[in-house]
Design brief:
The chain is of the alpha/beta class. It is about 35% helix and about 20% strand. A 6-stranded parallel beta sheet has the order 8-7-6-10-9-11, with helices on both faces.
Length: about 280
């Protein structure tokens, strides 16, 4: 049996401790003004487990009552005295405004991000995301990066935050399995200079005819590669492409001009992730 002392039946929808699940926006959760006290919401047992494995600290849980002694039991026990708010399915759906994924949410404190230098020192294959703004694409790119041999991800400040709930959910929690951080200097000029200093060659994924084939042997021969993906729709900026060492275009057929950035990332990581 789970510890019943921290299981709290929801009786008041307006309770302040439920704000994190029902009333705070994503930006309020992230708390940009004071990121050390920012939070995020992990959704579903698998994602919560991966966040805990990565060392994220839980604040509270919201669990459908029927899961207390089933799929949520081990996670509740693992979190010891963390408050667990519970109610029936219909009550929780009314509170949150959506159906809970597998009946469980967990509010957690944001982990401290590594520095850009830490990622560069330890990686052989990096991903650079330039102004990718859709959380679904961010989550899908992270999942592919974790699965296909990427060592870390660097994001420009205009990118959607990987700890938005939708990004976390789409990534299946891989945002906690691959190191990432936001760039701390200007992209592309200062960042490409830094990457070169760590021995990386930069690869722009762009629709340019004067590009090298994605399976070109000289790409795979590079010890360190940083694969750059641009924003949805417009792709990479021309200046960013010009600053990269290689430009790569994925061959298309049937008159299709390009892949969605998340789909393109999977192709690029599969081909260029071999070390």
């Amino acid at each position: 049996m789970t510890n019943r002392d921290n299981i709290i039946e929801i009786t008041n929808f307006e309770a302040e401790e439920l704000d994190v699940y029902a009333r705070l926006t994503e930006n309020q959760l992230l708390n940009r003004a004071d990121p050390e006290h920012g939070m995020f919401i992990a959704e579903s047992p698998k994602v919560i487990e991966r966040a805990l494995d990565a060392g994220c600290r839980p604040v509270s849980m919201l669990v459908e009552k029927k899961h207390i002694e089933t799929q949520a039991r081990e996670l509740i026990e693992r979190c010891e005295n963390v408050p667990v708010y519970t109610a029936e399915f219909d009550v929780l759906s009314k509170l949150t405004g959506f159906h809970l994924t597998r009946g469980m949410l967990c509010a957690m404190l944001r982990p401290k991000l590594p520095s850009v230098q830490e990622l560069c020192e330890k990686a052989k294959r990096l991903v650079i995301l330039e102004d990718v703004v859709n959380p679904t694409n961010i989550g899908a790119i992270f999942r592919s990066a974790a699965a296909l041999n990427m060592d870390g991800i660097l994001l420009t400040s205009a990118c959607s935050n990987p700890l938005y709930r939708r990004a976390i959910r789409v990534s299946m929690g891989t945002v906690f399995q691959i190191p990432w951080t936001f760039m701390d200097r200007e992209w592309p000029d200062e960042m490409t200079e830094l990457l070169h200093g760590y021995g990386f060659k930069t690869v722009a994924m762009a629709l340019k005819e004067d590009s090298v084939a994605i399976d070109d042997p000289k790409l795979l021969a590079e010890e360190k590669l940083a694969i750059v993906l641009g924003t949805e729709g417009e792709g990479m900026k021309n200046h960013s492409i010009a600053e990269c060492d290689y430009t790569v275009m994925i061959p298309m057929s049937h008159g299709v001009d390009s892949l969605n950035v998340a789909a393109a990332s999977a192709v690029a990581f599969w081909e260029l992730g071999r070390k």
